[in-house]
Known about the structure:
The structure is a homodimer of 231-residue chains. Chain A folds into two domains: 2-97, Protein Yojf, Chain: A, CATH 2.70.180; 112-230, Trna Endonuclease, Chain: A, domain 1, CATH 3.40.1350. In chain A, 23% of the residues lie in helices and 42% in strands. Chain A has helices at 63-67, 112-121, 166-179, 199-207, 217-230; strands spanning 2-13, 17-29, 35-38, 48-50, 54-59, 72-78, 84-97, 107-108, 131-137, 144-149, 155-164, 188-197, 211-214. In chain A, the strands form two sheets. Chain A has a seven-stranded antiparallel beta sheet, with no helix packed on it. In chain A, α3 packs parallel to α4. At the A-B interface, β2, β7 and β8 of A face β2, β7 and β8 of B. The first copy, chain A, binds a DNA duplex (15 and 15 nucleotides) through β4 and α3.
Amino acid sequence: xxxxxxxxxxxxxxxxxxxxxxxxxxxxxxxxxxxxxxxxxxxxxxxxxxxxxxxxxxxxxxxxxxxxxxxxxxxxxxxxxxxxxxxxxxxxxxxxxxxxxxxxxxxxxxxxxxxxxxxxxxxxxxxxxxxxxxxxxxxxxxxxxxxxxxxxxxxxxxxxxxxxxxxxxxxxxxxxxxxxxxxxxxxxxxxxxxxxxxxxxxxxxxxxxxxxxxxxxxxxxxxxxxxxxxx
Amino acid sequence: xxxxxxxxxxxxxxxxxxxxxxxxxxxxxxxxxxxxxxxxxxxxxxxxxxxxxxxxxxxxxxxxxxxxxxxxxxxxxxxxxxxxxxxxxxxxxxxxxxxxxxxxxxxxxxxxxxxxxxxxxxxxxxxxxxxxxxxxxxxxxxxxxxxxxxxxxxxxxxxxxxxxxxxxxxxxxxxxxxxxxxxxxxxxxxxxxxxxxxxxxxxxxxxxxxxxxxxxxxxxxxxxxxxxxxx
DNA sequence: GATTGGATTTCGTCA
DNA sequence: TGACGAAGTCCAATC
Lengths: 231, 231
């Protein structure tokens, strides 16, 4: 990994065209050839970048560029597309290289997966007398998160989201349309369950006869902990 | 901006819990307090990070940590949530600070906007005898990208995407449902136009009687250039 | 300030 | 390998 702090300007062309005016920035060149241009603020997203696989070519400035104070020109060309990043470096304030080695990568807990697990274990949160049929119930257009039966034996399809917006309601609607063609299941009712449900999603769901259920993740986790401790 | 290359491990807790095993990484501390942990590969996304506003506290390792070779402990706490990032630094290979100043930011050309402009100017791409009614035709749930009329005077609503997937078809479906309630327009047919259309989106569109149209951006731009040169 | 839709999205997972 | 859904998504325009 090479770290450069320099006054620079840049141009990107590929899926769009964009330019970065002259300023002091951090340039990171990774071992796989990818390049990041970071400013001293904003989020984790660089101002501009080139994803691997790509090649960095460093060359001399033209006479005209040199007259304007350019000392190096970096050209980063993507291998599989026309994406290209050109950086003009003026004053270089820092330049160092480091051996980092391979990273073992991030290990993370599930979120929606964990929520699904918890709701399956606490299916009575849907209502008294509910029973689980199965998680990831397969359909032609993909698996439904949870299929359950209510106290009267009626089928209930559950779509789970961390944040419930309009897309999730559309998704559940498609599943319901398909499931209701199955005479062994129909009629199938829908439940849209999420930690947070956006107002527009709630309106759309209600309009389509889909019940909305807000889940308290911490409470569900707490119950789960208590139950675990009992055994 | 502070740049540190160090052997480290890290834990994140907040909207999820995650851990980073011991490895050599780049740590970037930005002027706004945000912290990025980068490996020597992958994309522009850091392995882990903390977004601003947040505060970095550097403190001494506990005796137990020191025994394991930890030389510094960084705690990054988000100001408005419980998000927290803890980094244990072992050997520090590099540590430098730099003044970058404020960045003017990225200036970019439009993409979907440009595509819309080009298609409006080359509306005959939809078919012989087509005429433009208007771009951004307003409806109660938002503007339709392009409204046109075919050679027979029938209304046609166009949804434009750079990459056409199922969401775009859903969006156009909602527009068509609404537009077809207007007796002055109905019947309104739909065209789903994109530089690339995903198979599932094509299936769904076709199933709903929506025509799919793949656009050649470069060719459209080329035609535009030629036309510009004529005037 | 909340919401919505796009992104040079990136990143998994699964068929 | 391609497609699809999720993301600690981020981000800007709009209401």
